[in-house]
Amino acid sequence: GAWDSAHAWHLEEDLRLGGADTGASGFTLVRSLEVDAAGRVYVLEARPERITVFDDQGHLLRTIGRQGSGPGEFQQAAGMAWDTAGRLWVINQRNNRYSVFDTAGRLREEPQRPMGGFSTWRWQGIITRANRVIEVTALQPGFRTVLVRLDSTLHPADTLPLPRFDAPMFKLEREGMSVSYSVPFAPSLTWLLDPDGALWYATTDQYRIIHLTTGGDTALV
User: Taking the CB of residue 133, how many other CB atoms lie within 10 A of it?
Assistant: First the structure.
């Protein structure tokens, strides 16, 4: 009731990517989207494994990479991020490395990624304004999710565990086998990292957002 029809928000299509009119086929499994300073759009797909690049009008410019283990090739790439030099880092999970490209699609380097053995569907780490990579992994016991801040040589410098949250689950057991499922629409933990690497999080059953500094101190509730 606070907004009348004259002040309501409206969604209007501004750009459409994919399809014969753009010079590209439709997308299958999109894992990540990024935009560079010139407005070019980078789409990371899982099938086929590649990055498709469009200009700011939606026209196909080029593709980057393909599935494989050779230079500039991807195996289960899970995300992308820009560094402060304007280079695109691809999280090349199963190849256990980062693949770093310039905006022309040229491979610049492929440093080793220290988070081998832990795979995820979508990368939730970032590259901060200070040009430091923050990774996400899980540690035993309890498979608890932690943030890992890497130093300038891409070695782990320190860690910050995510707040512990035990989501409600239910279990099905039959003939000696069991499987657990999360409860639909139940409370969950949601979080993100800001450009400085600080953590913002909330549980969805509380009207409260918490801001943690990079050192793990509560800065704001």
Answer: 24
